[in-house]
Write a structure and sequence with these properties.
There is one protein chain. The protein is mainly alpha-helical. It has a single domain (26-187), classed as Intergrase catalytic core (hpI Integrase, Chain A, Orthogonal Bundle). 48% of the residues lie in helices and 5% in strands. The chain has a 3-stranded antiparallel β-sheet, with no helix packed on it. Strand 2 (72-76) and strand 3 form a beta hairpin. Helix 2 runs antiparallel to helix 4 and helix 2 (39-51) crosses helix 6. The N and C termini lie far apart (78 Å). The mean pLDDT is 88.
């Protein structure tokens, strides 16, 4: 029954870090996409930012888990191991078709993503990370594969036609609180909106001086007497 007293955090108790999404703005993502050196890599980036799948989940997709007609691709969820079909963008499937048209494939190989050089084996996480590192070296950036998942999540959250429950389902989060971190706006977006707010205010006509009535207002209030 004693009143609550605020105390300092214990010396050995770790402070919980604030989780901030780190998605790529559209312009910077376009630069990264243009730096990709093959149709396979462009297809992978398109799937990452349209499905929100984790890097390892997408790399584990097999041929029978692609439904082009329904625009779906199935991933095995990390942790639970359950299979989930995810919708992807039409552009992702276009790049996938270009990749498959020129990709040599061993007869019994079922992995969707393969190495470009022989012997053609399933593409690993380390190899895909190296693809991104080469693009970063050319652009002078340090983007990661996981940031592509953040990008997908932030794009979906920004769409007013999608609910937070929809985004939770696509990302495969067990708890809605995990999805809610993507509600935090990026600083560059906030700055852009505030600057636009200032530009709108600067362009608006100034209000009439107080104490003075415009002629049309007097005509409305007093009728013909004001005009005569």
């Amino acid at each position: 029954m004693q009143p609550h007293t605020r105390r300092h955090r214990a010396p050995l108790r770790q402070k919980t870090p604030e989780r901030v999404p780190r998605g790529l703005p559209d312009g910077l993502f376009d630069e990264l996409f243009a730096a990709m050196g093959s149709d396979r890599d462009r297809a992978l980036l398109a799937f990452y930012v349209s499905t929100g799948a984790r890097a390892s989940e997408l790399l584990g997709v097999t041929l029978e888990r692609v439904d082009i007609g329904s625009q779906l691709i199935a991933v095995e969820r990390k942790g639970s191991g359950r299979l989930q079909w995810l919708p992807a963008s039409a552009d992702a499937f276009v790049w996938l078709g270009l990749y498959e048209a020129h990709q040599p494939r061993p007869e019994d190989e079922t992995a969707l993503w393969l190495t470009r050089r022989a012997p053609h084996r399933p593409l690993t996480y380390a190899a895909m990370r190296r693809v991104l590192q080469r693009a970063n070296d050319g652009l002078g950036t340090s983007w990661t594969l996981h940031q592509l998942r953040h990008t997908a999540a932030q794009r979906m959250v920004a769409d007013p036609t999608m609910s937070l429950i929809d985004v939770q389902w696509v990302l495969g989060h067990a708890h809605l609180a995990t999805t809610e971190i993507y509600l935090q706006p990026r600083p560059d977006e906030v700055v852009a909106r505030v600057l636009e707010h200032h530009r709108r205010r600067a362009a608006a006509p100034p209000p009439p001086p107080s104490g003075a009535y415009r002629p049309e207002v007097l005509a409305t209030l007093l009728g013909d007497a004001a005009g005569g």
